[in-house]
Structure formats: C-alpha cells, structure tokens
C-alpha cells in the first residue's frame, strides 16, 4: 500500500444515502473515542444541487423528451449534453476544494497526531451519478480525486436500495444504479466492500476495523526509511562564524567544526558555512566551504550580518541536516523556522555569556530563539542545566570537546620554567587584570608568560596594564604574542602549570590541552569548569585574587605537588579524545537522519551559486 501523507482520507459510498450518512456519524463517534481527530465532509452534490434538490431535465437539441436521461445512462459511449458535463466538473471541483479544506483543518486540530477525514459520498458516487465514458475528462477528474483517498467504504445494499427523491428519474432504476456502482468500483483502487444488509452496529464495527487497519498499515509503510538514491549521500551542513583556517580565530567553535566535519565526511556529504571577507565556495579535502561576505564589517557587525544571512543560506543550500554553532554574543539565528530539515544547535557557553558588556540585552533574543530548537548540544553539564531550563522541550546532550593526545614524558612531570596563560587576549572576560594583580601581589618565583592575540583595542589595553604593573629593570610578566601550533606545543611542554583566571568560560579547551601534557591547571571555580574536578586542577573561590596568588606561589615552589597533579591531569585528559567527541556527533547525525521522521521529511532544495549538489 502507498503511504498517504497528512490526514487519512476515507469515503463512505453506496446507493443508500441515508444509510451512508448514519454510518459516517457512527464512525466519527467511534474514532473520536479512540483518540483520533475526525473531520466529516458531506458531499451530497454541488451548491446547485443543494439549491435545486431535483436536478432539471436536460435534453440535447432534437432529442425527443421523456427518456433522454435513462438512455444516456445506459449508453456509455454518449457523453451527454454539455450542461451535464459542466455540472459534473463543477461537482468534482467543489468536492476537491472541500476535501482540501477539511484536510488542512484536520491537520491543524491533530497537532501531529492521528487524523481522519471522512466524506459522506465520494468520487465513486459522482462517477455513478453522472456515469461518464471512462475516457472522458469528467471521469479523469473524479478518478484523480479518488486517487487521493486511502480507503473507500462501499456499503453494498443491492438493487433493493431505497431510491432517493428526485434521482429515480435522472439516474435510472435502483438496479441500474447498483450496476453502475459495481462497474465503477472495479475501476478504482482502495475499495472495501461492506454488507449493508447487516445490523448498523455490525456495519459500523466492520468499517471501523478497516479504517484502523489502514491507519496502522500507513504508519508502518511511512516508518520504513526510503532507500537512498544510488550514488547520492545525504548532505550535512555546519555553520560557524569563525574560520578554522584563519590564524586569528582558533577558538573552540571553528576547531570543533573542522574536526566534526572531517568525521561526518566519512558517511555524508559535508558543507561548512562560515564568514569571509569575500563570498565564494571551494572544495578541500572532500568538504565544501561556503563563505558569506561579512568579514569586512568587523567582528561585531560581521557576526550580526552572518546570523541575518544564515536563514537565506539555509533556503538556498540543499541539506538534510544542519549543525549550527551559536554565535556569541547574538547567539541563535532562529534557523529551525526557515527549514524543515532537523537543526542541531551547538552552544559553546552562550547561555551564561556576559551580555551586559555589549550594552544590549541579547539574552532576551537568545532565550526566545532557544525554544525553536529541538536538538541542542552543549560542552559541559552546567550549560546543559541552563539550556534545559530555558528550553524544556529540547533534547539537550552534553558532548565535551576533545584533545590530541601527545603522550607526555613521565620523567618531565612537575618540571617547567614558567607559568603559562594561553588564550585569547580579552582583559575582562579572560580575567587578565585579575591574573596580573594576583601575580603582582604574590610574586611567585617563576615568570609569567602570556600567549595569545585579540582585537587591537584589547591588545592596547593589555599593553597599558602591563606598563602600569612593571617593576624593576627586568619585567617578570612577558607577553609573547600569537602562538601557532608548533609554538603552542613548545610552550605547553616547557611550562610548569597553566593559569585560567577567566570571569566567564565556555569549556576551557586550553585547560584540556594543558592537562594532556601533564600540566596542572589553576582556575577560579566556575560552573563551566567543574568537569576538571579531581583531574589535576586547582580551583579557588571565584575572583578571589589573594587566594589565586597564594595557590600560584604554592604550585610554583612545590615540584612534587605539580608532579602528582600533572599525573592525574594526564590520566583525566585521556578520556577526552577527538575520536570520542566526533563519534558522538556522527551517531547523533545518524539518529536524526535514519529515524522515521527524517524519512517522511521532504528534502530542502535550492538553485543558486550556493547549490552544493555534485
């Protein structure tokens, strides 16, 4: 059986109009008792028939009166008068319009549940009434309407059916009318015959059983995933503002997007939508990159323009699944409202972002936007709790970031020449002012190295801060600028421990990288960083500068303590591998795309220079 989409369409047909109307009322009551949404449509002729209960006699020019209707009814090769053909097409058009309206109404009332539209009389009754030639346009119109029905219940009452007032003259004798029912029912599909001579309750029970069987059969057929076309793989799109290939943007978002894209490319076609100074597309390593031309607008305006363009990109890029990295501080883009494909929002700690620094309450837009997403991924349990509170209906999964495993030398545990801060230069968010103040108060025996880059304004602010705390002829706080991959690995190997004095953190990928090298991590006890507990970390009360400086001095002077903590950090880091992280994204993609709901969902198609079909 073919799987019909939307509400199930059922017709109750037969010569006994009074009996079919009674059966429709019984079926509506029985189906509603079983939790099915039911909408009934009464198809007793077009509006002309309802205004003129007795159809007028129509004769062709020159045809003798008296038996014209009966003769045309018995002669299938005659098309009948023109007025009769127009009348038949008018009735077919009105029936189709009423069915379409009833199905929309039933879909709205069902709210995703089972819905059935039952029509009292259907296209079979129209064919019997007008009895057009099988090759005529009138017959084709009624047959097209009948093709949309999942089931037609034909109540067989035989030639003794009670004639309907006004139609015994126009449609011939009951025997002739019943003969036309039998003839036309053989030409249509989905006909279920019911014995109308039985008690009404038994007829209703048999009809109900046929309808429920059709509902269950349709659900079974629709639930089976459609076979994927040969040679065509499903398409997954990842969107992230920062480009992982840009050395100025090495945050968690672009790094995660690159790793996940390469893993998903094993089973799917993958496209990464990101920002650029110029628009365009390119293919690299089996992944297509689409760059939206918003980079020249600056970091803040560019992010806003990127979010504004994402819905248009989603409308133009054919896709089966979209993974959207939220873009702080603006966060969500309401993308699920613009596509029927599943959308997974990936939150990197934006739910608790310090929005007040931007003087605009972006959190109001974010809280409204989060309710549009049915699937959200976060990197730590604290953000997961926040998202579940803001969007109770969402399926929230915690998938931590991963790290490359460098296999640190056990003999070097506890060693190190300096204290290392390795992150983006953002004085307030990353707590650089707190770090410099704590170091200046405690004066630990090891120098402090700051590695990283940031916006020009933040770098100027850091320069002024270092100049204000400079003491002696040789400063002990050194800002070494950007750290590429090779330089970063060298700094991690040679450092004694890492410091993370952030006021706000998402996951703390830098901390995980330091743990992989067997380095302890000193940080404020933020909820987003509690995944490090008992993993070689040292946590102090949030923003307690004196306690931070004291623990910094303790770690700098106690080599044995650093060795013990570094050993635990290295063991803990082994549980955070990129293979595990990307594997969970791959499993999520398969779960969403291989489910029955994904099989029913039509694929998004577009046509433009952003088209990603190959």
UniProtKB/TrEMBL annotation:
Residues 58-80 are annotated as: Disordered. SUPFAM superfamilies: P-loop containing nucleoside triphosphate hydrolases, UDP-Glycosyltransferase/glycogen phosphorylase. Signal peptide: none annotated. InterPro entries: Glyco_trans_4-like_N, P-loop_NTPase. Keywords: Glycosyltransferase, Transferase. GO terms for molecular function: glycosyltransferase activity. This is D-inositol 3-phosphate glycosyltransferase. Residues 259-402 form the Glycosyltransferase subfamily 4-like N-terminal domain. It holds the Pfam family Glyco_trans_1_4. Gene3D superfamilies: Glycogen Phosphorylase B, P-loop containing nucleotide triphosphate hydrolases. It comes from Streptomyces sp. R44.
